[in-house]
Amino acid sequence: MEKFTTLTAVAAPFPQKNVDTDTIIRIERCTGTPKEELGRYAFEMARADPAFVLNQPRYRAARILVCGEFFGTGSSREMAVWALAGLGFRCLIAPSFGQIFFGNCYQNGVLPVVLPGPAVAALMERAAAPGAAPFTVDLERQTVNGEHRFDIGARRKRMLLEGLDEIGLTLALEDRIAAFQAADRERRPWVYEGVSNAHRREK
Amino acid sequence: MPGRTLLDKVWDEHVIEDLGDGEQLLHVDRHLLHELSGHRGQLEIARRGLKMRNPELALGTLDHVVSTVPGRRGGPAPWADRMIEVFRTESRKAGFPVYDFGEDGQGIVHVVGPELGFTLPGVLLVCGDSHTCTHGALGALAWGIGTSELVHVLATQAIVQAKPKAMRVRFEGVPGRGVGAKDMILALIGKLGTAGGVGYAVEYAGEAIRALEIEGRMTVCNLSIELGAKIGMVAPDEKTYDYVKGRQHAPAGALRERALAHWRALPSDADARFDAEHALDCASLAPQVTWGTSPEDVIGVDGLVPDAKPAALEYMGLQPGRPIAGTKVDRVFIGSCTNSRLPDLREAAGVVRGRRVAPHVKAWVVPGSQRVKREAEGEGLDEVFRAAGFEWRESGCSMCVGANGDLVEPMARCVSTSNRNFVGRQGPQARTHLASPVTAAAAAIAGEIADVRRL
Questions:
Q1: Touching check for B144 and chain A: CB below 8 Å?
Q2: Across residues A160-186, what is the average pLDDT?
C-alpha cells in the first residue's frame, strides 16, 4: 500500500450531504471495470453537469476533497474508494463518513479525516475561495493546514505512515488464530461441526 | 460490575487478539459470498498467491448479477455468465459449496443464509454486502465488508475491527392494521436520520420486536445500515431457536442442545448499560413511504409532502404540501433482501387477491430465494400475483440495485420494498419510493401511492 505522510495539494469543496456510494460509482461500473479505470467513472452522473466542482479547471489537480456530512453512506462497494483514488484523491475531510466506506478508505491508503462541522465549514469556504492556496494534511502531526487537529488511532496511523498491509500483519498472527480456533472448537463445537457436516452432505 | 449487552457477549467471545488502540482481531465464524463481491475477492487472493484458510466456514450463492426472467439459467449478458463461472470455479477450487440455479439455496445472500441455518445466534458473520446487518435478527453479530476486508477474511478467517458503541431502540406498542416491520424501521430512520446510528451497533428491543416473526426482525435489522449503523441485532428467543431448528447447516441433536444452552445466555442483562437509548411508539404509526432521495425522507402514507430538500423534491417530481397518496406510479417492485421472504409475499398477496394491477403499472414480484419461490408456489401465491397482473420472477437482487440490468426507466416512479431510494439507485433518473410489501401491493392495485388501510 502507498504510504501517507504529508500531503500538500489543491482541495476541492463538495458540500453535498449524504453522498452515497451509488453516486460515487454506479453499480454498472462495479461489475467488471478494472480497478485502474474506475477513476474516469467517479461521480459519473454528477459530472455530466459542466458546473460540477470536479469539472472546474482549478480543481482538476485536487487530491483533497472537503465533503459534507455523512460522506460515503450506503453500499459496501470498495470501488467507491478506488474510483476516488483513481481521480487522485488521497485525503477526504468530512464531519462524518459512512462506516463501511470509512474502513475501505484505510485499506487503500486514503486518509479519511473527521473534523467538527464548523472546522469543515471553514475549510470548505477556504477551498472554494478564489485563488485558494493548497491545503497541507500532516498525518504525523494529525493536522490540516497546521490548525485543525484530527483524531486517528495509533495503529491505523502507523499503517498509513509505513504503508503496511493489514493482511500481512494478520498472517503474522497465524499461531494466535489457530490457538483461538482450537479452544473455540471445545467451547462452541456447533460453529465448526454443524456447517462442515452440511458441506459434506452437499458433496 | 454492570450487566453486559448482547453486543458485549457476542463480541467478547470472538476476540483473538487485542491489537491495542481500541482495535481487535476477531474470529469470523461464517463467511457468506456472492458472485459480485466474491469473485473479485477470489481473483485478488489468487493474485496475491494466498489461500482460503477455512472453506468449511463459507457458503456461496448467486444473487446480484443473475437474470430474474422466468426460467433463466444464467446472467442477463455474457459478462455476467463469465463472472458467475469464475465464482463457481474458484469456490470449487477453494472447497466451499455455491448454491446454483434451480437449487433451493440460490437467492439473495441475506435470505439464503438464515434459511439454510448458516446464520445462527451468537455467530460472527460477514459478507461483501452492506445489508449483512440483516443477520443480526437471529442474534448474530454481522456486518458488511469491502473487497480488501473480504480478501483478509478469506486468507485469515479473521477481521480487524474497533468495537462500536451500543445503542438500544425499544419499539413499544402494538402496530395497527397495515403497519409492520418495514414501517417501524423506516419511521425510526425518519426520526433519528440516516447518520443517527453512526458509530453504534443497534439492538432492537421492546414488545413490538418480540411480537415480530424472525423474517420481520430481519426486515428491521436490514435497514440498520440506512440508520448509519453497520450492525443491528435482536436478542435471540424461543422464536429464534424454533426458526433455526432442522435447517440444513444448523446444529442438530446433542450439538443443538449445547448450542441452546449457550444461546440462552446471550440476551442483554437486565442491568446492561447502553451508550444511547431511543424509543418509538408503534401504536400511532401509519404505513410509511419515502418522498425523497434518502431513507430518512419518510412520512406516513396519509401525510403531506414536506417543504424541504428542494433538490430531492425536484428529482422526485413532487410538490410540497400535497398529499403523497394519489401520486401516480409506473412500477412496483416487491423483492430485495429487505422484503422478499415468504411472510412478505403472503402479506402482499393478501392485498392483491381478487384484484387487478392498474393497467398503466408494471408490477413485479421477485422472491428472495428459490426456496421462497417454491414454498410460495406451494401455497398458490404465484397464481394470486399472476392473476392480478404481476410478473412472478426468479430469485435475485434484481431491481433493488439493478446490477443485472433490472432497472426502472428514467423519470418513472417505482414503489419498491427495497432499502435505498438514492438518486439513480434503481436506474438513471428513476424515482424510488420505499414502502412495505402491503403498501407496494396497494400502489400496484390503485395505480398510485395509496393507503392500504383504505383500499
A1: yes
A2: 97
